[in-house]
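Page 37, top half.
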Amino acid sequence: MLVDLTVAVADGATTISDVAVLSDQAELFGLVASDSTCWRLLDQLDTATLSQVARARSAAREVVWAQRAELTGQPFPPAKAAGRALPGLVIDLDASIVVCRSEKELAAPTFKKTFGYHPMLAFCDNTGEFLAAQLRRGNGGQQHRRRCTTSPGSKPLSPRSRTPIATATRSWSGPIPPAAPESSSATSAAAAMRR
């Protein structure tokens, strides 16, 4: 089942239900788990398994970036701010409010007078890749400034790399995924690079 989800994500899946696309190609993928089975699997994953998934993602990312470096001379595209390419990796830390209609675990009143979550999200600004998330209570934005310097758990490159890493932060209170214009992220990245 975890393999089904992995293949679906590699194929461009953005939701759990997108795993159904694989069942249209039974000759290639065989029997594919239903989305409800996938949800049950995800609900049962323990910390050790999640750590293995993070290590596998990190290893796959390193291979892909090495292959890209062979072809283009760069392991990843440069992040851009104000029309200029920024050196190294830019990790974009973002907080967003997710509204809940009922009391769910960790849901709480938000600063926007709604009820739900305020997760911290990390993206690689160079590639647009989602790196990590930390589920926080709806009032979690109160600690935003203090926690925004924390880097995501999985490292994008090996420790041998000498690639500079900048952290860009911004706060977004709209629905997930935030549809902020590229320039606001780039402006935040430029400000982070100047610090």
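Page 37, bottom half:
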Amino acid sequence: MSTHGGQVTLSIGGRPYTVACAAGEEDHIKRLAALVDEKMAQLGSARAPQASQNLLFCALLLADDLHERTAELAEVSASLAHVRRDRGASDDHRDRAEEEKSSLLSKISQLRADAERFSEERGGMAAEIDRLHRQLAEQAGSPAKTFSASSDDPALAPALEHFAEMLEKCADGLEGRLGSAAAMH
């Protein structure tokens, strides 16, 4: 194979062929001619007497190779599309899981804050109970007097009412949390 200006001389099946080509395309044309020459060699003893028939057979063999590669490419493209579709579904699933995780972390944070608040309220109620016990112990001469309808201490009734309100508030908060926890399941 040789190159002359805008022409390339190729050897296919032992015969020279001169073809014109664009400048810079010579090496590419030579590589293509080598593929045709390879197919011509594959014909071996089955070569036809006329060169044009042999070139036609070579063209058919190359077309068959191209057809097989095109089918393989279509399979690979279909597999790639399937992988991309699966990855997209996986990404969607991951995004939903991240959203759910974020929501659950937010709920956990809220429950912790509520638990801390209830703990503080419980501490306040415990202190109030202790204060009321001390107050009752100071005022009580006997258990019957402590719980009698007529108490001598005018601050006892409001203190007991305040204590009852605190207990109700705590119970309402706990019921609300239990309702929220049940709704989560």
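Margin note: Residues 1-47 form a domain with the Double Stranded RNA Binding Domain fold (CATH 3.30.160).
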